[in-house]
Amino acid sequence: VPIREAQSFCRICAGLCGVDLKIDEQDRVIEVRGAKDHPLSQGYACIKGLQLPEAHNGPTRLLHPQKRLPDGSFVPIALEQALDEIADKLRVILERDGPESIAGFRGTQGYSTVAANQMLPDWLRTLGSPSFFSTMSIDQSAKWVNFERLGGWSAGRQPFADSDVLMMVGGNPLVSVSVFGFPMFDPTKQIKAARERGLKLIVIDPRRTESAHFADVFLQPYPGEDPTVAAGLLRIVLTEGWEDKTFCARYADNVDALRTAVLPFTPEYVERRAGVARHKLREAVELFARQSRRGTAITSTGPNMAAHSNLSEHLFECLNVVCGRFLRAGEPVPNPGVLQARRPYLEQVIAPQRSWERGHKSRIRGVGTLFGEMMSGILADEILLPGKGQIKSLFVDGGNPVNGFPDQNKTVAAFKALELLVTIDPYMTNTAKLSHFVLPPKIFFERADLASPVYETAVFPLPFMIYTPAVVKPPKDSDLVDDWYVFWALAKRLGRGIVYNGVALDMSNAPTTDELLAILARNSQIPLDEIKRHPLGKIFDVEPQLVEPGDPRTDAKFAVMPPDVAAEIAAIFAEPFDAGCSISNGQRFTHRLTSRRMRGVINTTYHALSESRRRHPFNPAYLHSDDLAALQLKEGDMVDIVSDHGRIPAMVKVDAALRPGVVSMTHGWGGMPGDVADYEKHGSSTNLLVSTERDCEAINAMPRMSAIPVNIVKASSQSI
Ligand SMILES: Nc1nc2c(c(=O)[nH]1)N[C@H]1C(S)=C(S)[C@@H](COP(=O)(O)OP(=O)(O)OC[C@H]3O[C@@H](n4cnc5c(=O)[nH]c(N)nc54)[C@H](O)[C@@H]3O)O[C@H]1N2
Ligand SMILES: Nc1nc2c(c(=O)[nH]1)N[C@H]1C(S)=C(S)[C@@H](COP(=O)(O)OP(=O)(O)OC[C@H]3O[C@@H](n4cnc5c(=O)[nH]c(N)nc54)[C@H](O)[C@@H]3O)O[C@H]1N2
Ligand code: SF4
Ligand SMILES: [Mo]
């Protein structure tokens, strides 16, 4: 029986939906509803958010820290005792192997635990360790590479809100609610409203997605061919003279070299290679560059995970550059920020820095860092390769790399080799099972939080901000931790101070989460106390801001054709290709495997919640019915999916939205490799198909995690 109500927000994905809660006499959240009064989400919440009562109170939640015994079983241990034992081990490792042997990994749920999001890297800094990893480098770090190689734009791109056109490449916000450049709240309502006011939508995706149903032009290329499609689009713009010549002359370096580089990518070539009809390619680019004045090309995980992800990102952003789709002096800044300090937005290029060429270099292939992070594609190798700098201890916060990382077998082997693996997670995940200590944290409604100060302007199209207090107490008799406390408490035990977001913390008395949030908000444009007065957040009246003219002393330009990009374009053009057959590591493959999101789960998480389980008991392999017929398969048959790296079982299902030649399958599933396979209970891990050695991007070690060449082999004995 509910005895009180409260409001807060869901932090599972970038949607950050406002929620109304009902709480019972034991202080448990028993009902979650989308909050109608939330200024952005306006009552929307998805099936994941609605199941948060079960996530909080369900039987799979860990309520006490766990210590693994030599026989692999776990026993509960008191939190402070666990921290003492962890600190004792850390002291030995630090002394013997140096700071770089201690690493941290931030998973998706570490981003939305805002106080901890800052604490983990600050803790590694006080130890002197460069070994900080996050999901970004197995997600969309092509965007980081781009910023550092092509350059950025101080004032940002033209916003969705007043665009005439949007070209969306390999993202499906109607399911993921998380595509940069698309409003990340109630996506169906957003797209309908935008089309009503005249926005034209171009979608480029091998699957006619839920989002593509709203497209005015839909291109359905063969997966992994985005560089060819993008080059083909650029070629038409640059040979027809549809570029913004004034913008190009002032802000882009060497557009002629770009034009020359894309010349071979004729519409005929694009049609043969990527399977996009030449008239469709032209229709898309006419709509984007000729009939529309405002609006951008945006990319998401599809092209950012396929081979040549950095080149795809570069070329699609070049489309924005040559069409000048950036905010100019005098235009309003859509979101000047609420928590972030005010900064000028300029009509100016932020010059490319190629920062990965300087700074810490990995022992693995000399891979550098981006934005202070090492690349997750080489984490397992950094653990396995002996010698100075070898990682011996890993702290995982809000992630489940055993299921999220490429090359699952290697990840498991590496984690088993660690001297100390500590995972902060509310559930006994596969990563937790390999950990020496599992520290269960307080979860959403038990902890105070803000929307991320780091991502606020990327996620909110307006100066919106929200704070939530802890609205319920942790379960009775539990021994849970605030994620950030783990790092503060270990620093204290090791006799180190922590400089938190630039502020030295008192190391004798632990701060409160609210004190940490106040540090993060110390330069905010609206006082934190005022933000706290609005339980569902508010679009604040921050002082409006206009884009200012650029600094006349700089002549920074977008580097549209640096030598490494030119070389990669030439190499792609030189590749042999044959529709219906991919060669990988010398073997021939008939299909390409892409990833997709499922509404009821996020990555490896929430598979056990009742409604999610009912909807998605496992992860099927979706194929077009023509492919099933050609393979003499029927829906429900079991197959093996075979890549040049591994083999996984899957049940086939029909998806008429796919183009033939594509297998579409969600990542994040599967039991522990080597355990008895029980596909219908756990699904299987597409990451067994991915190599972290071949087909990786040079700069950011991003593996080929989409458009993976595969064969589909009938599993003769297992048909259901
Ligand atoms: N093949 C393939 N692999 C992929 C992808 C793909 O498309 N294809 N996608 C990639 C992408 S985009 C990403 S972002 C990564 C994701 O990789 P991960 O971040 O490693 O995976 P998640 O399942 O998001 O991990 C979230 C973890 O946080 C835990 N958790 C839930 N609530 C809390 C909390 O309040 N506090 C804490 N501390 N933990 C909590 C969950 O139980 C779960 O274990 O996977 C990548 N892997
Ligand atoms: N329900 C739910 N929501 C989520 C998540 C989840 O697991 N479940 N995960 C969250 C995370 S961590 C992230 S990063 C975001 C991701 O958000 P999105 O990027 O929107 O992820 P998807 O919905 O998988 O959409 C990717 C699209 O790319 C297409 N694609 C695959 N390969 C290629 C290719 O080679 N080229 C092109 N052009 N397209 C291709 C796929 O068909 C698919 O439609 O979603 C977040 N939101
Ligand atoms: S879309 Fe769903 S998972 Fe994402 S914040 Fe909203 S309710 Fe939570
Ligand atoms: Mo992600």
Short overview:
With 720 residues, the protein is of the alpha/beta class. The protein has 27 helices and 34 strands. A hairpin with an 8-residue loop joins strand 1 and strand 2.
Radius of gyration over all CA atoms, rounded: 25 Å
Give the distance, in angstroms, between the N- and C-terminal Cα atoms. 44 Å
| Large-scale geometry | globular
Bound molecules: ligand MGD, iron/sulfur cluster, molybdenum atom
Q: Say how many strands there are.
A: 34
What does the average pLDDT come to? 96
Q: Strand portion, in percent?
A: 15-25%
In the sheet with the most strands, the strands line up as 5-4-18-17-16-6-7
Given helix and strand content, the structural type is alpha/beta
